[in-house]
Amino acid sequence: MTYHESIRIEATAERVWEILMDVERWPTWTASMSEVHRLDREPFGVGSRVRVKQPRLPATQWVVTECEPGRSFTWTSRSGGVTTFADHRIRGDEGVTVELILRQSGLLTPLIGLVAGNLTRRYLRMEAEGLKERAERDA
Q1: What b/e sequence results for 84-120 when a residue is b if at least 16 CB atoms lie within 10 Å of its CB, and e otherwise?
Q2: pLDDT category, 7, cuts 50, 70, 90?
Q3: Residue 111: predicted pLDDT
Q4: Model's pTM, two decimal places?
Q5: How far apart are CA 85 and CA 97, in angstroms?
Q6: Which phi and psi (to 5°) does residue 121 adopt?
Q7: 3-class DSSP string for 76-119
Q8: CA-to-CA distance for 13 and 98, rounded, in angstroms?
Q9: What is the pLDDT of residue 113?
Q10: What's the pLDDT at 10?
Q11: How far apart, in whole angstroms, are the C-alpha atoms of residue 2 and residue 4?
Q12: pLDDT tens for residues 45-66?
């Protein structure tokens, strides 16, 4: 199961990346996140662990599995028979397109899709719109 959200942001790729890397501040610009805590203190990158609490969902631990600094990162979560991959991609340099892609696999994926599919789509949209507003406000 895959969910995709794309949004145009009138800010530099560097500015958008800076906002994305400050994961603990995400709840200040998107209501789709209520708490985000880094579980380690090394620079954000492959291997970084983050605990995320979202409204109406249980807290989840994410691990960064891929990172291209300034351009993209993917983090992965495993829970209850479902593996989730969340990609965050920046395309362009001055005025960018951000793609948020959430992919789920595992035996319970169809059930999770039925129960939480609309919520997942809404949260991805909230994240994209919040990121746009935050990046353009300071651009």
Answers
A1: bbbbbbbeeeeebebbbbbbbebeebeebeeeeeeeb
A2: very high
A3: 60
A4: 0.92
A5: 20
A6: -60, -40
A7: EEEECCEEEEEEEEEECCEEEEEEEEEEEECCCHHHHHHHHHHH
A8: 9
A9: 65
A10: 96
A11: 7
A12: 999 999 999 999 899 999 999 9
The answer, yes or no, to whether residue 112 has pLDDT greater than 80, is no
Residue 5, pLDDT above cutoff 90: yes
The three-state (H, E, C) secondary structure of 17-78, written as one string: HHHHHCHHHHHHCCCCCCEEEECCCCCCCCCCEEEEECCCCCCEEEEEEEEECCCEEEEEEE
Q: Tell me, what amino acid is at 112?
A: I
Structure tokens of 58?
Answer: 């249980």
Residue 122, helix vs strand vs coil? helix
Residue with tokens 């969902």: 57
What residues pair up with 67 in beta bridges, in sequence order?
73
Nearest CA-CA partner of 88 in 104, 105, 76, 106: 76
Average pLDDT over residues 31-54: 97
Contact 104, 83 (CB under 8 A): yes
5: nearest Cα among 111, 103, 102: 102
Amino acid found at 88? H
Q: Which two tokens stand for residue 85?
A: 């991959």
